[in-house]
Structure to design on (127 residues):
C-alpha cells in the first residue's frame, strides 16, 4: 500500500498567498502580487511571489494549468482542512492537547459578542 502523501506545514508568507487563492478560486501570479501589495506598505516583488507559488506547488498546496503563456493556479488543499491542521498543531504544542484550554483562551480574554455566545451555545447544544 502506498504511503499517504504528507502536505508540508505552511509558513505565514505562504498562508497569505493561500488565503488569496482560496478567496479568488483561480489566480495568476500577477493577481497574487496585486493582492499582496494592496495590503502592504513594503511592496513584494513578482519574482518573490513566483518563487513562493512554485514552492507551494512543489509542497502540494497548489496546482496550475496553462492558458497560453499564463499559469493559472488553484488550491489543492482546502481552506477548512488547513484551519483544522493549524488549530490541531496549536492545541497540541500550546495547550497540551486540551480543546477546553484552547477554547477557554479564545473566549476568556476576548470581547465576545452576545451573538457569538449564542452561536457557541447552539453549536454545543447540537453536538
Amino acid at each position: 500500500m502506498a504511503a499517504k502523501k504528507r502536505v508540508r506545514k505552511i509558513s505565514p508568507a505562504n498562508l497569505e498567498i493561500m488565503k488569496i487563492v482560496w478567496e479568488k478560486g483561480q489566480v495568476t501570479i500577477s493577481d497574487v502580487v496585486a493582492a499582496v501589495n494592496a495590503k502592504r506598505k513594503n511592496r513584494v516583488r513578482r519574482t518573490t511571489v513566483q518563487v513562493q507559488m512554485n514552492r507551494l506547488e512543489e509542497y502540494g498546496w497548489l496546482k496550475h494549468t496553462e492558458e497560453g503563456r499564463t499559469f493559472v493556479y488553484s488550491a489543492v488543499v482546502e481552506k477548512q482542512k488547513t484551519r483544522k491542521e493549524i488549530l490541531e498543531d496549536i492545541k497540541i504544542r500550546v495547550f497540551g492537547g486540551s480543546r477546553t484550554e484552547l477554547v477557554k483562551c479564545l473566549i476568556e480574554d476576548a470581547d465576545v459578542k452576545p451573538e457569538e455566545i449564542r452561536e457557541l451555545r447552539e453549536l454545543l447544544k447540537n453536538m
Notes: The domain at 12-75 is CATH 1.10.10.10 (Arc Repressor Mutant, subunit A).
